[in-house]
Every structure is written in C-alpha cells, then in structure tokens.
Write a sequence for this structure.
C-alpha cells in the first residue's frame, strides 16, 4: 500500500490500540513545517480520550509554523487584521482590555482607510500621509492609529509576507507643548466645600441621598496620587489606619468592558504601580469615617461600592463628580487632575524623583511631561547668589 502523501502542517490517519499497561495509545504521522513527517502519539484511559489527547498535541504542534502561508503580498489588509488579532489571542501576553483597545482603534481608525488595499500597496508614503492627516484632527487618534498599524505590519514582516515595515520610516508625530493642569490649594478647598454641600443633602429633592463616598474618594486620591480605578479597587485588607503611620496599599484596579460586568482586577496598570503609600491625616480621617459608616467589612470587600455591594465604575464616579461640581459652577475638573495636583505639590516641596515614586512611574520623564505643572517662579536663592558674585565695591 502506498504511503499517504501529507501536506505541510497536516496529519494522516489516526490508529488506536491498547498498550500492555491497559491504556489506549493513539498515533499518526504529522508532516512538520520543515517538511519531515514524524510519528506523534498520545495516550488516554479510553480510545476516544487518547484520540482527543493526540489532536490536542497536534494543535499545539501546529503553533510552531514559521509563517501564515495563506497571507501573501496580494492579500488584503483586512485579512492581515484578522490574522493579527488571532495572533494576539494566541500569544496571550496582552490583557483583554489592551487587546480590545487595539481592535477598537484598528477597526475605527485604520481599517476604513486600509482594508481594501493589498499589502504590497501599503508603502511609506501612504502610511505617512495617513498619520499626518489624522494628526490634524487629533494627536491622540494619530498616536493610537500609529501603534496598531505598526504592530499589524510588523507581524507581516516577521512572517515573511512583507520585506519591511513601512511604519519604520514614517515621520515622527509632533505635539504642541502641553502644560499639565494642576489645582492650587484654594481650588481644592472650593471643590471639597462643593462636594460637602452636596453630600449634606441640604438641597436634596428626590431619589437616593448622597452616601458620602464621593468626598472620601477625592480625599484618597489627594492623599495617594492614585488613579481613580486604583482607588475604587481598594479593599478593607489594603487599608491600615491604626498604625502610627497610616497607609493604603494600591494593588488593583477596576475594569469595565463592553458586554461584561465591572470587576476588580488584582493588579494595577503596571507592575511598578503596586505600592504601599503612607497617607496624610486628611485621607486617614476620611477612611476612618468611611469605615465607621459602612460598619463590618470582610477583608476582601471593597472600601467603596454600590448599594448592591458591586464595584463602582470609573465612568459613574467621573459623571457624578462632573455633575456635582457643575451644579456649583465649577467646570473642567476630572479625577485625573487630582493625580497631577499631587505630583506637582510633591515635586514643588521635595523632588521629581519622589513624585515619580509616589505615582508609580519607572521614568521621571513621564512624570515631568504629563503630571508636573511648571512654575514660572525661579528659585529666589539666585538673588543671594548673584549678590555675592557681583556685589559693588564699597565706596
């Protein structure tokens, strides 16, 4: 009988037999991506279990293919996008949130322009023009489009579909200098007063009365520099207000995905973001009041939660803060502004290194660029220094 001819990446007929040990062994010939056919086998307690184990092993072996042979330079960009998203899922290194963000940015920003193009038609000039045109509309959108377009075309290069990545030669994006907005102490106190007035329910008309959480959330943000999602993810076990130095451990964040229930993720945005922060008196007092109000909490219960005991969403807290402050005539304040406010205060009174450490940044450049509001006032010590250097001779 002629031996079965196999294509690369395929397997032949599966044979199953019982071994002397009483287990079933399923085996077949598989033609690897180097062209050599090899015997692959797996065992199980039943013939069907052995066959399933074999197919699972073959599926894992299939992952070692060096390239996607279905893609060619004449394939449409839309085909590459599908394959790129499958590759992200296969690799499993990106979080679900990041993966979904990549897909959203690709589908909304890049695909409408590139989907009908063959891969060989996508060159430096086309990519460069696309990014520049998008940057005129929005720097942020251009940056997001640049990231996903580079990643998809990079995959095509790695899998030998394209000889080079045109995005490597696209002009750098230029952004107008941006001064981070931070609040001054009087502005912070005006915000505190507006929230306190609202939480007093003096002007309450209908619906559930304010539960006091918004004010406490603001105090925790001001005392830790934490992101809003990190604050909402603080559990009872993360809070220590009985030690000589009260502290809060930031070790998670709140995640809301379309079509899914909001949940607490057991790590923050980055590994460096997990940190224990000593908190000032005003934050410790706010946390104590919150604990006294909610009564008994389990160690894993959230410090801030809905009336049903579910996590608060960052979107709802942002919306509530905006509504409360706009009702008091205050506009333009966001939760992230408190993070920049804390960073600016720490930098002004201590150092940029301490501000970066508090924010959980690995690079002070990020802190300087996005979080520190630059002061126009030069250190007055220069006046005394220049007096000593250039003092007039006494007559």
């Amino acid at each position: 009988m002629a031996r079965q001819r196999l294509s690369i990446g395929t397997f032949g007929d599966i044979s199953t037999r019982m071994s002397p040990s009483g287990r079933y062994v399923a085996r077949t010939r598989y033609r690897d991506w180097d062209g050599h056919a090899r015997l692959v086998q797996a065992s199980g307690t039943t013939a069907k279990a052995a066959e399933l184990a074999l197919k699972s092993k073959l599926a894992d072996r299939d992952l070692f293919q060096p390239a996607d042979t279905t893609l060619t330079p004449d394939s449409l960009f839309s085909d590459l996008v599908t394959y790129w998203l499958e590759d992200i899922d296969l690799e499993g290194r990106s979080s679900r949130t990041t993966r979904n963000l990549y897909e959203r940015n690709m589908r909304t920003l890049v695909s409408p322009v590139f989907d009908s193009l063959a891969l060989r038609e996508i060159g430096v000039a086309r990519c460069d023009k696309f990014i520049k045109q998008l940057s005129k509309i929005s720097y942020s959108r251009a940056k997001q489009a640049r990231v996903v377009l580079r990643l998809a075309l990079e995959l095509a290069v790695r899998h030998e579909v394209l000889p080079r990545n045109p995005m490597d030669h696209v002009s750098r994006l230029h952004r107008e200098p941006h001064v981070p907005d931070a609040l001054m102490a009087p502005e912070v106190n005006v915000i505190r007063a507006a929230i306190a007035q609202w939480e007093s329910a003096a002007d309450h008309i209908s619906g559930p009365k304010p539960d006091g959480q918004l004010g406490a959330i603001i105090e925790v943000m001001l005392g830790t520099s934490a992101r809003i999602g990190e604050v909402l993810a603080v559990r009872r076990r993360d809070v220590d207000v009985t030690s000589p130095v009260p502290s809060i451990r930031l070790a998670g964040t709140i995640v809301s995905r379309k079509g899914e229930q909001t949940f607490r993720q057991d790590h923050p945005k980055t590994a460096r973001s997990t940190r224990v922060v000593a908190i000032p008196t005003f934050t410790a007092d706010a946390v104590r009041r919150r604990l006294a109000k909610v009564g008994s909490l389990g160690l894993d219960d959230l410090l801030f939660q809905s009336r049903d005991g579910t996590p608060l969403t960052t979107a709802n807290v942002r919306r509530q803060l905006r509504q409360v402050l706009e009702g008091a005539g205050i506009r333009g304040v966001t939760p992230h502004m408190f993070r920049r406010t804390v960073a600016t205060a720490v930098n002004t009174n201590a150092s940029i290194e301490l501000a970066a450490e508090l924010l959980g940044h690995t690079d002070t450049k990020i802190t300087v660029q996005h979080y520190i509001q630059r002061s126009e006032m030069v250190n007055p010590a220069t006046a005394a220094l220049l007096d000593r250097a250039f003092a007039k001779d006494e007559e």
